[in-house]
Amino acid sequence: MPQHYLTDADGTVRGPGAKPPEPAAGPLLPARAGLREVMSRFATGITVLTAGGEHAHGMTANSFTSVSLEPPLVLCCVSRVARMHSAIVEAGSYAVSVLGADQRDVARHFADWRRPGGLAQFDAVDWTPGPRTGAPLLGGALAWLECALDSVHVGGDHSIFVGRVLASSGTGGDPLLFYGGDYLRFDDRLRATA
């Protein structure tokens, strides 16, 4: 049987068999609604995933993270019914543009299902083809990665695309964040501001 250790808010470590604290008061929600509500309280950065090729496509995503430094791997999660899913599979690669605080309109553009398809959807933004994958890299982003598709894993109604990083670069600056269903930025005192 696993040993459980918990750390209290004051840093006190409680030993084996410790019981977790009582949950905060609030209504219990069905699993799907509850997950959506809880995850809206987890602040994340915002990226735009892109794939090049015949069916070039872009999509705003916050489900992105690093996996490994050796080898250099990252992952993104994409709904299996999204156009981005087939674009990544067909291209066998993808790129990630990490958005800066002043790129709310870019995030909204690539989250809008009514935007044009193919390369026409990139007419509204500054971009350049990635030198390793041809996937669009968005101008003004804080950082970029180009990835070869390393593996695909089923994760419920999404696929988890693990990419081997082929190239990366960055400029620095303030990030665009997603929290509570809205895009936010940090001001110079590190307070979230709308």
Summarize the structure.
The protein has 194 residues and is mainly beta. The chain is 13% helix and 40% strand. A hairpin with a 6-residue loop joins strand 9 (127-129) and strand 10.
What does this structure look like?
The chain is mainly beta and 194 residues long. It has one domain: Pnp Oxidase, Chain A (Roll), CATH 2.30.110. Helices cover 13% and strands 40% of the residues. It contains 3 helices and 15 strands. The chain has helices spanning 31-39, 83-91, 104-111; strands spanning 6-7, 13-14, 44-45, 47-51, 57-61, 64-68, 73-79, 93-98, 127-129, 136-138, 143-155, 158-170, 176-179, 182-186, 192-193. The strands form 4 sheets. It has a 7-stranded antiparallel beta sheet with strand order 5-4-8-11-12-7-6, with helices on both faces. Strands 3-13-14-15 form a 4-stranded antiparallel beta sheet, with no helix packed on it. It has a two-stranded antiparallel sheet with strand order 1-2. The longest helix has 9 residues, at 31-39. The radius of gyration is 19 Å and the shape is globular. The mean pLDDT is 86.
